[in-house]
Write a structure and sequence with these properties.
Layout (H helix, E strand, L loop, with lengths): L1 H23 L15 H25 L14
Length: about 80
């Protein structure tokens, strides 16, 4: 399943880069030097999504997740 998602993501990235090369390249006013690279914004968006996923997983693992007996630790005091 992970391999399928990886292949779909890579295929979408290639399609977006090709569309950027053939459809958008000379038709927009470029304000930043990195805007000249074909597929920059597709790569930027993909890396941004990966960063959001990694940060959310780390946040969930280290801040939200508790041990299995978290609520039973103080059960002896009852």
């Amino acid at each position: 399943m992970k391999r399928t998602w990886l292949l779909v993501s890579l295929a979408m990235f290639v399609i977006l880069v090709l569309l950027d090369l053939f459809l958008v390249s000379g038709h927009i006013h470029v304000e930043f030097p990195w805007s000249h690279f074909a597929g920059f914004f597709a790569l930027f968006g993909f890396l941004g999504c990966l960063l959001i996923i990694v940060v959310a997983k780390l946040l969930g693992h280290y801040w939200l997740q508790r041990e299995e007996d978290y609520y039973d630790k103080n059960g002896d005091n009852e």
